[in-house]
Amino acid sequence: xxxxxxxxxxxxxxxxxxxxxxxxxxxxxxxxxxxxxxxxxxxxxxxxxxxxxxxxxxxxxxxxxxxxxxxxxxxxxxxxxxxxxxxxxxxxxxxxxxxxxxxxxxxxxxxx
Length: 112
Ligand code: SF4
Known about the structure:
The protein is an alpha+beta fold. Helix content is 30%, strand content 10%. The longest helix has 29 residues, at 3-31.
């Protein structure tokens, strides 16, 4: 074995480590896609009266809203309980605030 062989092995090891780290990062991204937060001005959000903070809902303009209703206890929320921003069935590839609300709210069973 000469110096040239050692350098080649080091390079090979570096390439292998780099590839392994890259593959792990790619797998993490594929398993948990990072979607952008829903904009309250998004046309669908406006149509459904979505807001990031359910406490700001005007009950006179949204008679179906009741205190205590928010995305975290809505049937359409699909994320991990406790996360501040989660996917919603009604807003594909966007995240809604767990504290948010829209007029499509439906009580999630077991959250009464
Ligand atoms: S459908 Fe439910 S989870 Fe989705 S934005 Fe409306 S209230 Fe929130």
